[in-house]
Fold Dihydrolipoyl dehydrogenase.
Amino acid sequence: MYDLIILGGGPAGYLAAERAGHAKLSTCLFEMNALGGVCLNEGCIPSKALLYSAKVYDYALHGEKYGVKAENASLDHKAVVARRGKVVRTLVSGVGAKMKGAGVTVVKERASIVGRVEGGYEVEAAGQKYQAKRLLIATGSSPSLPPIPGLKEGIEAGYLLTNREVLTLDAVPERLAIIGGGVIGLEMAAYYATAGSKVTVIEMLDHIAGATDREISTMLQKEYEKKGVTFLLSTKVVSIAEGKIACEAGGKPLEVPFDKALVSIGRRANIKGIGLENLGVVTDRAGIVTDNCMRTSVENVYATGDVTGRYMLAHTAYRESEVAINTILGKADRMRYNANPSVIYTQPEVASVGLSEEAAKDAGIDYEVKKLSMRYAGRFVAENEGGDGICKILVDKKHRNILGVHMLGSYSSEIIWGAAEMIENELRVTDAREIIFPHPTVSEIIRETLWEFDDK
Ligand code: NAI
């Protein structure tokens, strides 16, 4: 009998396995596809490979602004996709090596929970039975595919794509329609618009980028529009047929022609077909319900990552898995989500942590906000000819601690963890100002914005 069986080898599962293995828990990990899960194989990592190629191409096209002339620059999409494959293979084999190093048994099969046995639980995979004292469920999420007429048929026929197929298309479609202006939709719009597609984003809300600070999502939309992306906001998809999407906007019908269309309207936790009912694990509309130690309703059964349906971010999953393993090991630890950063890897990048103005207002929090153009950071000006961005900081009006930091501009993704640290440690404006930022860096915009507050 193992100490721990883990279902799912994505970020939540493999990180839990690594930590458990190094803590000398005998651990068995089941993964039915490639190690690394959606994030590594068909999400975070391959999309970043594509986006980096778009960035390099964009620099080549607009190098003249920096005194660099590149003639006949072109983007070879097939080569971009091939490089994406190489990046993924390298990292997947890295995860395999980590499992080996931690002494984890990896079974490359689909597993499902059979039920309780004396002292633990039983799992079945490919006709074999495995037992463990504890279970950790990390089966992730899948694209949400609502019953829109024509959607299922379109996916089967191949003209409708999910996050998986959009990363491996063998040619750049002339017209790409994107249903859903959230994170996946925007990242793919950035790549394909630069690669040459005529991109149209259909979004049912009146703004893009979901819960992102509204001022920033408006600025981001303008940047996209400069690249030729069309946004149809407050627009509902009614039905889909090959070559055209029937929509409705303000009560009026509207047709969007396309060659390929991406469906990126959210994800659903993978809670079906894994035998949760055999243990009576409680789920809700989002996914498996856990407490902040990642314990489910069943003793010694844990769940982390997208399957809990809470944040659906790989970095959140990592931390949740650490909390689960620490709980198993009897070390005091718990999840705190108030300093959980999020990034949209567009160009320019969007990064935020903590409360947005909208969320602070909804929660009735008395806050003060200051913002500065990114052009107050010397390095930003040196590297972004004609470009702009913003840094926005929210502070609790009474206690003066930092509640939220929101950024639009280069390197934001690499800077935001520092802001998360400020929120996690409940730093006040005066404390955070004492931090020495390297100069010249774009990160200094945080320091500059902090000095906009009147605190003495
Ligand atoms: P999302 O929740 O970010 O965005 C979905 C969008 O689709 C929303 O704006 C929603 O209003 C819209 N929508 C829903 N139904 C619609 C309909 N019928 N017609 C038009 N619009 C509709 O979901 P997305 O982009 O699919 O991403 C899934 C998950 O993957 C997210 O939870 C995200 O956290 C994660 N992810 C994170 C990334 C990152 O951190 N950089 C990158 C990619 C994905």
Remarks:
- The radius of gyration is 23 Å.
